[in-house]
Amino acid sequence: MPKTIVCDGNEAAAWGVSRAKPDMVAVYPITPQSSLAEYVSQFVADGIIDADLMDVEGEHSVLSVLQGACLAGARTFTATCGQGLAFMFEPYFRTPPLRLPIVMSIVTRDGITPQCVWGGQQDAMTVREVGWIQMYCETVQEVLDTVILAYRVAEHRDVMLPVNVCHDGNYLSYGVEKVELPDQEDVDRFMGEKNTNWHVALDPERPMGVDPLTGGATGNGPALFVRYRKGSCKAMQNALQVICDVHREWGEQFGRHYAPLVEEYRLDGADFALVTIGSMTGAAKDAVDAAREQGVKVGLIKIKTFRPFPLEAMIQALSKVKAVGVVDRSVSFGWNSGPVYQETLSALYHLKERIPAVSFIGGLAGADITETHLQRVIDVTASLLQGHMPAQPIWLNEND
Amino acid sequence: MGRSYHTIAFDAQKCNGCQECEKACAQAKAGVTDLVHSRIKVSPGRKEGEWGLALCRQCAQPLCVMNCPGGALSKDPVSGVVSWDESRCVGCKLCTLACAYAGITFNQATGQVMKCDFCGGDPACVKSCERGALQHLTGSDIYNEWGDLEDLFVPGISACLGCNSELLVRHTLRRVGPNTVVATPPGCIAGVGAVGVNGLTATKTPVFHPLLTNTASMLAGARRYYNRIGRDVTMLAFAGDGGAADVGFQSLSGAAERGEQIIFICVDNEGYMNTGVQRSSTTPYGAWTSTTPVGSVLRGKTRDAKPLPIIMLMHNCEYVATASTAYMEDYYQKLEKAILAAKKGMAYVHVFSPCPTGWRLPPARLIEAGRKAVQCNLMPLWEYESATGDMRFTHPVDNPLPVTDYLSMIGKYRHLSAEQTQHIQEHADRQVDLLRKFMQQRMDLAV
Is A71–B208 a contact, with Cβ atoms under 8 angstroms apart? Predict the structure, then answer.
């Protein structure tokens, strides 16, 4: 029988890790990820997780030891955020093209400067173009489940890519919910065989040169390099189907169904929609419900999988409305808007008809995105239908 | 593969014709000082003050043996010594005619031929030569013990002419063997194609490019996993000084602190040679590099090298040693210890590797420069074993040559002022003094 426990998102992630049975976990603390590292360490100490605990000297080495272990055949896990992710960037950048199926939680945090230790998605959004799969969670239960799911995606033969399971710092990391902890035997059945290094290995029984110099302007260099890049891009696209399949399988086995790529919430009969990502979605759904009761025809589009970008699913959802308001929890400095907004615009290009969109930025550095903020999002977006176009972006917490 | 044997080497430039070797030989073989019994002969050379040596070479294909009608001469396949059996000798002296080196001669006093028998492996002549003109060379053990091991590095490496790194990698891989994962971060060894280029690799073991920064971490992760599944796979790093002392230092230090089971070999050529000779933290004081240039204002590097071997010593690794490609037998002995130590924790070996390209040093003089550096105490050879707490010089230099003997060979020092040279001399003295104190301290602790 699955157990019901009450825990925060960091502990839920650690329980997810325990059920996925990694061979190695590497830890280095950083707020708001620290308690996740602590839970994982304690689980190893208590024998709940049977893994090597690599208590290394920094995030750079966290990912580096996991790369070495993965190349030797290990299933691996770690977590980080913010500056830790920034410090880790050098090996992080290299993990996807090495095609290592490492799973790493990003307990999302805003970026310094100004110095801050609170939630925001600036860290994860900044690395969106590196080649990791990124899935954003809405609830504590989804954190637990997605950590397990992530291994099935990462280790799928047609994918072989690392996965970030992103959960919002503060809101999900410390937010407590009742969650269901699936039985180990059930998860074992779901997980199947470990599949980490059939394709690239550091193993004397299968000696190979891993990552030789590749490229240049002569010989087979240019073609070879393109082959690697095309392979990575193809694997990303393959992941879209795999993510759907794995979520469906999970739902069938455990009874919890998540929209794998994009969730459509109350889009039927909606004139316009909000686009959200992560934990803000809960408050946004409440705001949508309240507005609906007032007769406002608003729906919601939640992005769960941001990388690979779920283009077809987004086109399908966006084509049902006449305007969108996109709420970002981070900033695209170069565009003077939010990154999710920019990606949404790219998807809108594929619609037959052009519809207006507006960028909102809120919840930076731990600030709340409340129902009141979201009511404003609804009001402003509704005004687009009357031909208004406000100055952008709209900073939701500017006057808090 | 054939065998190689110990030999007695003669340095004519050091010989002054004192004949002490002849006396020692006569004493050892006949119990008298009469030089007629000496099997080694020093004789005047072509020019005044020059000396030549007549001594058995213990030839691989000895003509004396082939020409002996009585079968009195034979070559021992293990020791390599050509021995003479009195009971079978017919006294024909054909052997003395066959030998081109006057290595077997007729003894007027005994009426028999005589030749060097190597004194059972500890030649008296060598011990008697105070000037060091005679040397008992035992380096051939390398060939005999490791010569048959598979060469795991392919031929045709694109290293600079004369580079010692290839020598080091080839020998190390032979000894460490195929059950090894090799890491070579960006640098010369990776640059010569050790990991490979566009699908081709140069190493027959698993080999990879770590980042310049994470060599020790990646190896640590792989090793831990192999431990977990019960496989004893050797983890071997060849990192340059940048990948060890500079940007790679954090991961190295962390792995050492955690006692990761790695053989970490730092190939120290004192700078970023692969990228065009920029300074690193192990570039010595005064040295020219492309980022410590010499001009009217700047005169090379203004700081001393970071003493990475000592820093690793303070990490209490299982084994720490310095080594030099100019002393390969010393290196082999250390490699043996490093392999054993890495079963328990980190073995750190810091190899001084002169660079022909970056040091402005003729390729033919690389080994000579490596020797001089040791003889000047600029690159002292020592080792530390955690298991015993023993720390010692493996090649003690009690009367070091002045550092100028070394500096004057090398182009990157050609601009040095007298003050800069003095700084380098004082630094060398202080460094050796510090090592002596460490050794003394550890002995005190042992008491």
Answer: yes
On whether both B205 and B122 belong to a single domain, the answer is no
Residues B61 and B208 in one domain: no
| Least-confidence region, from A145-154, A373-382, B15-24, B43-52 | B43-52
Structure tokens at B356: 């022909």
Asked if the structure places residue B287 within a domain, the reply is: yes
The CATH code of the domain that includes B59 is: 3.30.70.20
Assess whether B203 and B260 both reside in one domain. yes
Any idea what the Cα angle at residue A110 is, between residues A104 and A112, rounded to 5°?
115
CATH code: domain of residue B238: 3.40.50.970
Write down the pLDDT at residue B148: 85
Q: What is the pLDDT of residue B147?
A: 81
Rounded Cα gap, residues B118 and B58, in angstroms: 9
CA distance B156 to chain A (A): 17
Q: Which chain A residues are closer than 8 Å to B250 by Cβ?
A: 57-58, 60-61
Task: Please indicate, yes or no, whether residues B125 and B174 belong to a single structural domain of this protein.
Answer: no
In this structure, the number of other CB atoms found within 10 A of the CB of residue B212 comes to: 20
Q: How many whole angstroms from its chain centre is CA B86?
A: 40
Q: Find the CB nearest A69 among B202, B205, B225.
A: B225
Structure token pair of residue A100: 């290592």
- Whether residue B44 is contained in a domain is answered as yes
For A218, which residue in chain B has the nearest alpha carbon? B198
Omega within 30 of 0 (cis) for the link into A80: no
Task: Give the model's pLDDT for residue B441.
Answer: 83
The boundaries of the domain holding residue B183 are 149-446
Q: What is the ipTM of this complex?
A: 0.96
Nearest CA in chain A to B211: A91
| Segments in chain A below pLDDT 50 | none
* CA nearest neighbour of B115 among B124, B106, B128: B106
Q: How far apart are CA B100 and CA B226, in angstroms?
A: 58
Which residue ranges form the domains of chain A, and what is each CATH number?
3-198+240-252 (3.40.50.970), 262-395 (3.40.50.920)
User: Which residue in A24, A204, A206 is closest to B225 by CB distance?
Assistant: A24
In a domain, B421, yes or no: yes
Q: What is the mean pLDDT of chain B?
A: 94
Residue A226 contacts B where some CB pair is shorter than 8 Å:
no
Chain B residue whose CA is closest to A220: B198
Whether the per-residue pLDDT at B1 is higher than 60: the answer is no
Domain boundary among B114, B141, B168: B141
Q: Are residues B111 and B164 in the same domain?
A: no
Burial of A115 (0-12, 13-18, 19+ CB in 10 A): exposed
